[in-house]
Amino acid sequence: MPELAELRLTADYINQAASGLKFTKIHKNPVHKGKEVPTPFKWFTISAESRGKELMITLKDTDTSNFKRLLMGMGMAGHFKLTNTTNEPKHAHLMFYATDGVTLSFVDVRRFGKWKEVEEWSSNRGPDPTKEYKDFKENILANMNKAAMKKPICEVLMNQGYFNGIGNYLRAEILHRIPKLNPFTPANKAIHDHPIIFILCKELPLKAYALGGGQLKDWENPFKTEKEMFEKFIMCYGNTNMARVKDKNGRVFWFNPKWTKSLLFSLYYDA
After folding, report:
1. Lower CB count within 10 Å: N or C terminus of the chain?
2. Long-range contacts of 191-199 (CB under 8 A, 24+ apart)
3. What's this model's pTM, rounded to 2 decimal places?
């Protein structure tokens, strides 16, 4: 958390908040272990774009066509907030100061967020299933014989090299919406027998985005959208009527309790 929908909403917020502003300075809170970000230009604009679970911030010189890019990971609760300068949030760790007396801050209570200067998106992450659906699908199909695809589909859906942007709540909701699919089935077999997985990896993140994102635990929608509709959208994740176990990566997986009686479930936890 945040996942694809939440990163896309974060980009939307940055673009709205920074629209029409000129920035003059960047400051990193010394308590954060992240690297300093030198102020790149005398005056610059800020824009943002998301891809799966990553956020790209572009700092563009107002006088030339030059720009710098920062690739950001939000951690567990990272978000941005625009405030008056000198009124930055307590846990602001990267601050962009504008000429209008306002500051756009990256706020991260847990300090799990990170950033680095880059030229492109991370090469170890797959295409975004909502924005690059054709490439997303082809990337998976081209790698169906890889060792990673022999692991249970419930694990592989969290592999960002193939399912960029799919996280813990989305994997639970995707698999729950395929009632005949045992979530402990090897990924290559599950995808072959249930290609609807591809469609759900596109449609459910888009639905979550339209509903204002997963306001779960520490993440809040930056536009202050009510969360009741999203709560109705969630059918499996966090539902006390569902089974939950820790997967081999230590993440809690929520699923239909009927699968606890299956051989695949037993084999997974005996391995």
Report:
1. C
2. 191/140, 191/144, 191/149, 191/153, 192/144, 197/153, 198/129, 198/133, 198/136, 198/137, 198/140
3. 0.93
